Amino acid sequence: MLDSFIEQTLFPVTHDLGGFKVHRTLPAPERTMVGPFLFFDQMGPATLPTGEGIDVRPHPHINLSTVTYLFAGAIDHRDSLGTAKRIEPGAVNLMTAGRGIVHSERSPGDERAHGPVLSGIQTWLALPDALEECGPAFEHVAADELPVIEAGGARARIIMGALWGRSAPTTAHAGAIYADIALSPGARVPIDAAADERALYLADGKAVLEGVPLLPMRLYVLRPGIAATLGSAAGGRVMLCGGDAFSTPRHVWWNFVSSRLDRIEQAKRDWRSGAFPLVPNDAAEFIPIPDRPLTVSYP
Predict the structure, then answer these.
(1) What are phi and psi of 262, to 5 degrees?
(2) How far is CA 234 from CA 91, 171, 186, 202, 228, in A?
(3) For a FRET experiment, which of 168, 253, 277, 285 has its CA 20 to 30 Å from that of 227?
(4) 179-213: b (≥16 Cβ within 10 Å) or e
């Protein structure tokens, strides 16, 4: 029965970063994108030892936007624009790379002091062809600025785009829907068919689509034009993502995304040569480019 609503089920690739796991469902060999979304990572949940934390050293991006959304914990973001911003649960960090940006992500010092907890979702969104080389930008939207809808036993925070008649203030460079849906026991809510492409991800607890259980850490791509009912008997947390379908394919290699393979090759040369800008107050180290050919490309 679930097959009548689900077009594809994408399974995670799990990376153990030393006591901290990341589960990645996009990109996958069988599918690159759901609407503008082309990268979907669940971070944790994890509790790190006292005095430790995450330290994602400065690294570059091009031709995409990154969205960081936390369930628990905190991350200090710094970038080559001079931004220094902490993100905490329920807020959004939106970083638009455009023609090029460098950033770092680290556990704040006060979080390390008592053993940081970290749980959340990181996504990348492709930029439309005409905006791939736009100027880099950063936007923080506080938790109390994002609309929250309570209906049908669910509490949904709209991260980007529109849901159930409400819209988030977060900049969307392409048509997108992104929401965090907390389902109370007995909840039943509609997942409408407005977007070209949509997917559901069970981040925690239990949930069913049209009465059929969803499994955790799977990205369920819904069939276009099909409305369905999402529910939960015991309570759960489901992420909804998607939006306008892209007609131009995107290529993904390391931290670089582009509609053009030659643009990715240029970005590789620029990072090796030091042509990207530095991150103020975090320029002493960086992540070196992988020593491998351009082999990951999804038409």
Answers:
(1) -65, -30
(2) 26, 34, 7, 13, 19
(3) 168
(4) bbbbbeeebebebeeebebbbbbbbbebbbbeeee
> Residue 226 to residues 7, 210, 229, 265, 292: CA-CA distances in angstroms?
10, 12, 10, 39, 41
Q: What pLDDT does 120 receive?
A: 97
- Reported as a single tens digit per residue, the pLDDT across 153-209 is 999 999 999 999 999 999 999 999 999 999 999 999 999 998 999 999 999 999 999
pLDDT band (50, 70, 90) for residue 217: very high
Q: What is the pTM of this model?
A: 0.95
Count the residues in the chain. 299
Q: What is the pairing mode between strands 208-209 and 228-232?
A: antiparallel
**Considering just the CA atoms, what is the radius of gyration of the chain in Å?**
19
Residue 251 tokens read as: 């290529």
Mean pLDDT of 259-285: 97
The whole-angstrom separation of Cα 222 and Cα 6 is: 4
- Report the phi/psi class of residue 206: left, alpha or beta, with left for phi > 0 and alpha for psi in -120 to 50: beta
* 124 vs 254: CA distance, rounded Å: 12
Looking at residue 247, the DSSP 8-state letter turns out to be S
| CB distance 257 to 63 below 8 Å | yes
Omega prior to 36 cis, within 30 of 0: no
- Provide the 3-class DSSP secondary structure of residue 228: strand
Count of other CB atoms within 10 angstroms of residue 153: 16
Close Cβ partners of 150 (under 8 Å, ≥ 6 residues apart): 156
Q: Is 138 exposed, middle or buried (0-12, 13-18, 19+ CB in 10 A)?
A: buried
